[in-house]
Amino acid sequence: MICDVCKSREAVVYQPHTGRRLCKECFIEDIRQRVKKEAEKQGLLKASKILLAVSGGKDSLTLADTLASFIDPKRLVAFNIVEGISGYNRKEQAEKLRKYLDDLGIELISTSFKDSVGYTLDEMVSSARAKGLNISACTFCGGFRRKLINDAGRQVKADLVATGHNLDDEAQTVIVNILRGDVKRLVRLGDVPLKLSDKFVLRVKPLRKIYEWETTMYAFLKGFEFQEVECPYISARPTLRAKVRELLYLIEQQKPGSLLRIVEEFDKISELVRQHSPKEELPTCKICGEPTSYGREICKNCELMIQSGLLPQ
Ligand code: SF4
Ligand code: ZN
Ligand code: ZN
Q1: Distance from the CA of 279 to the center of ligand 1, in angstroms?
Q2: Residues at CB less than 6 angstroms from ligand 1
Q3: Which of 5-19, 193-207, 226-240, 282-296 has the highest mean pLDDT?
Q4: CATH number for position 32
Q5: Which of 182, 190, 285, 311 has the fewest Cβ atoms within 10 angstroms?
Q6: For a pocket test of ligand 1, which of 60, 138, 140 has the largest count of ligand atoms closer than 8 A to its C-beta?
């Protein structure tokens, strides 16, 4: 089978949402161009420094590689967090990540939950359990990762923080927030980043229009050996998101391109809603001084630590 784009090389990938068969080179170029288009909208091309949140998984490697193809790697700094999950945070994987980033000319800085927060994720989870609380590991993990990424962004004076969230993640987030009726969080999505506090480095998702299978294929075709071990806490992921994920896969299978349409149409709605809603600055946490959600005096992270007995009340 010949590639539908260059009409010369052998096709190796079928892209259901476009109905095209692509060779390795044309597939890589297609992904880079789509990431560039999204990056332009999100202001990455004009930023002088961008922090990349990387885990060593396929999405973060695809993020680093695609961005480095059209942004000077000296303007990129990668940031890795070791959560402290036994059997998951492996040394060899961290070394591979460092090597790939070195090859791309991207500096890597890292930290761990233990060094920055004082506890590993495993310790947080067991403390909460000992108190009889049913707080999922992902709740701790997501909140503290967000905080550490923001801290690192401020530290390196980044204009933007880029994460490796892909189209599947983004479509799930849109639907989950609709089902929860969380309009304020919904409006924050959208393709143009929204600054809600001076303490937040703007977060962007350059891969938000790239399917998860495409980031996997990109990393595979580039020869990256990525972290394939699943986090042992994955089964504790919030159930609503897991159900939405399953449902969206079924829909995408029957009607390829559906996820892309959900996110693209949502971007248009979000733009309209933003025009009509006043921009409110986020309140600040009374304990740590970081921005917190509307209506809260103490941020979720501090609240979790107090509940788990890891922070005095
Ligand atoms: Fe963190 Fe949950 Fe992801 Fe594991 S599955 S890395 S605990 S967010
Ligand atoms: Zn081709
Ligand atoms: Zn706080």
Answers
A1: 31
A2: 137-138, 141-142, 231, 233-234, 237
A3: 5-19
A4: 3.40.50.620
A5: 182
A6: 138
DSSP string of the chain? -B-TTTSSSBP-EEETTTTEEE-HHHHHHHHHHHHHHHHHHTTTTT-S-EEEE--SSHHHHHHHHHHHTTS-GGGEEEEEEE---TTTS-HHHHHHHHHHHHHHT-EEEEEEHHHHHSS-HHHHHHHHHHTT----HHHHHHHHHHHHHHHHHHHTT-SEEE----HHHHHHHHHHHHHHT-HHHHHH-SSS-----TTSPEEE-TTTTS-HHHHHHHHHHTT-----SPPTTGGGS-HHHHHHHHHHHHHHHHSTTHHHHHHHHHHHHHHHHHHHSPPPPPPB-TTT--B--TT-SS-HHHHHHHHTTSS--
Structural domain span for residue 263: 27-281
Question: Is the complex ipTM more than 0.90?
Answer: yes
Domain contains 293: no
| Ligand 1 atom closest to Cα of residue 138 | 2
Q: Going by CA atoms, what residue is nearest to atom 5 of ligand 1?
A: 234
Give me the number of domains the chain comprises.
Answer: 1
Q: Does any domain span residue 291?
A: no
Residue 13 located in a structural domain: no
In a domain, 64, yes or no: yes
The pTM of the full predicted model, rounded to 2 decimals, is 0.92
